[in-house]
Design brief:
Shape of chain A: globular
Largest interface: A-B, 46 and 48 residues
Shape of chain B: globular
Helix content of chain B: 10-25%
Radius of gyration of chain B: 17 Å
Number of helices of chain B: 7
Largest sheet of chain A: none
Structural class of chain B: alpha+beta
Strand order of the largest sheet of chain B: 8-1-9
Distance between the termini of chain B: 28 Å
Number of strands of chain A: 0
Order of helices and strands of chain B: EHEEHEEHEHEHHEHE
Radius of gyration of chain A: 20 Å
Strand content of chain A: under 5%
Number of helices of chain A: 10
Largest sheet of chain B: 3 strands, mixed
Helix content of chain A: over 70%
Oligomer: heterodimer
Strand content of chain B: 15-25%
Chain lengths: 296, 200
């Protein structure tokens, strides 16, 4: 049942020149934020687990994608009709993403069965692995395009958003693997992953700065959104979650660990911080989204 | 055929009667306003001006909501009216994000306007709207099907609204556009809205 407060805020919003979007960032909208975080992290984790041959990340990656898919379904107003989302692959990014997830989950599950129970790797196994990699890559890629195709919200309506989301999903995947490895894998395995994660963290920081600078010059609504993020109600989470916990601390620890041994737990902690940062950035971008004002 | 509307901002007196009659005709729940009137002020005292701008779904020729909809719930009739099949909508709200005119509303509950419960009008009208789906103006399609004008047009006491076929060069809307020009909202986005405003 809708609350009277929610109705009031919605009606008040209609009188605003810069109307905030609430559907994808408040109430059940939080499930969408969590869903995008989980699916991106899971798919990134699967990709890195395959490339670095760290099998511990495979089941966790799949589990995260499944949890993300469930969060997606719970977000829907009518989840019982979810199957209909596969019908408009040609034009809708949500439909494309749903199809990618539907492809990835059973294929990845089949690959895990083969990996753990088959005597030896067959050609079919390799083909299934390849399809799972394509599915995971698709999940990493599609989310940014869902946001970027939103013409109503200038902060999202830029090609930089897909680039940002892809980088974040990859970094979150690597971070999730590091967290897993920090609790039970040999240090040598972590060592192979840390440079990749550090590189991704630095790239992400650069991308965030470029994104902010570009959007500041992309019209009055985007500027207003950026102001919300840097100086307004979203600022505390942006500085604490995105900048400090999500970027600065992981980069400092990663840089410190570059070329010299550091405790495994410290790397695990940096990776955990990266994950929190990834979740924060998705939330901040969603929360700072303002609808284009109506020109008169 | 392409139904469209011309709204003469010079004639509109901002009485919000169109918004009220839209509510009455469609029985939309609280927080769902398929039509609203925005008041805009410009200039500085003593040279000030106040304009009332009615807003509703623009029934774009190239609707971004139609492309974004993952289920095909949003569709366009042969007469150009953009509509939603509530039985197909999953309530993902993607269409709300892509609509540059923010004229779509999510119905996440059926609370009434009064604490005492539904009025007889609400009890009769709300079941027409499904919970958990998005809705919007459909140019009063049931009325148009009967040969009537949309409720907002028929009830506009200032006769600021004109409804008709944009493809017919002899229709009233085409004549108004030909004679007085008018503008669309955000033409640069390529959506080609079917509602045109005549300047005040």
């Amino acid at each position: 049942m809708i609350s009277a407060r929610s109705v009031r805020s919605r009606t008040v919003d209609l009188g605003e020149r810069f109307r905030p979007q609430r559907e994808w960032s408040e109430g059940r909208g939080l499930l969408l934020i969590i869903a995008h975080f989980l699916t991106g992290t899971g798919a990134g984790c699967w990709l890195f687990a395959v490339f670095f041959d760290l099998t511990i990340g495979l089941p966790i990656g799949l589990l995260l994608v499944i949890m993300g898919a469930i969060a997606h379904l719970l977000f829907l107003g009518r989840p019982e009709r979810f199957w209909r989302m596969m019908t408009h692959f040609s034009s809708s990014w949500i439909s494309r993403g749903f199809t990618g997830m539907t492809l990835f989950i059973p294929v990845a599950f089949t690959y895990l069965l083969l990996l753990y129970f088959a005597a030896e790797q067959s050609m079919i196994g390799k083909a299934i692995l390849l399809v799972s990699l394509l599915g995971a890559a698709w999940i990493v890629v599609y989310k940014g395009f869902v946001w970027a195709s939103s013409k109503g919200i200038p902060l999202w309506n830029t090609p930089l958003v897909p680039a940002l989301y892809i980088t974040y999903a990859l970094r979150a995947g690597a971070a999730m693997l590091m967290v897993l490895l920090a609790f039970g894998a040999p240090a040598s395995e972590v060592g192979s992953l840390e440079p990749a994660k550090l590189w991704l963290a630095v790239s992400t920081a650069v991308l965030v700065l470029i994104y902010i600078e570009v959007m500041r010059g992309s019209g009055i609504t985007a500027l207003r959104s950026i102001n919300l993020m840097l100086f307004g109600r979203v600022a505390p989470l942006f500085y604490l979650g995105v900048a400090l916990i999500g970027l600065l601390i992981p980069i400092v620890i990663g840089g410190f660990a570059y070329g010299r041994p550091v405790p495994l737990e410290l790397l695990g902690l940096a990776a955990l911080f990266s994950l929190l940062g990834d979740l924060s950035v998705i939330y901040c971008i969603a929360k700072a989204g303002l609808y284009r004002p109506l020109p008169m | 055929m392409r139904y469209g509307m011309v709204i003469d901002l010079k004639r509109c007196i901002g009485c919000t009667g169109c918004a009220v009659v839209c509510k009455a005709e469609n029985a939309t729940p609280p927080g769902v306003l398929w039509l609203r009137v925005v008041k805009q002020e410009s200039g500085t005292y003593p040279q000030v001006r106040r304009v009332s701008v009615p807003l509703q779904c623009m029934h774009c020729a190239e609707p971004p909501c139609l492309e974004a909809c993952p289920t095909g719930a949003t569709f366009k009739h042969m007469n150009g009216i953009v509509d939603i099949n509530a039985d197909q909508c999953v309530g993902c709200r993607y269409c709300m994000m892509v609509c540059p005119y923010h004229q779509r509303f999510f119905n996440d509950g059926q609370a009434g306007y009064f604490d005492e419960g539904y009025t007889p009008f609400e009890a009769a009208g709300y079941p027409r709207h499904q919970e958990g789906v998005v809705s919007k103006c459909n140019f009063c399609l049931p009325r148009v099907g009967k040969g009537l004008e949309p409720a907002c047009v028929a009830n506009c006491m200032a006769r600021a609204r004109t409804f008709g076929d944009l493809d017919d060069p002899n229709s009233e809307v085409s004549k108004l556009i030909r004679d007085r020009g008018g503008y669309q909202l955000y033409p640069e986005l390529g959506t080609d809205p079917s509602i045109r405003y005549l300047p005040p």
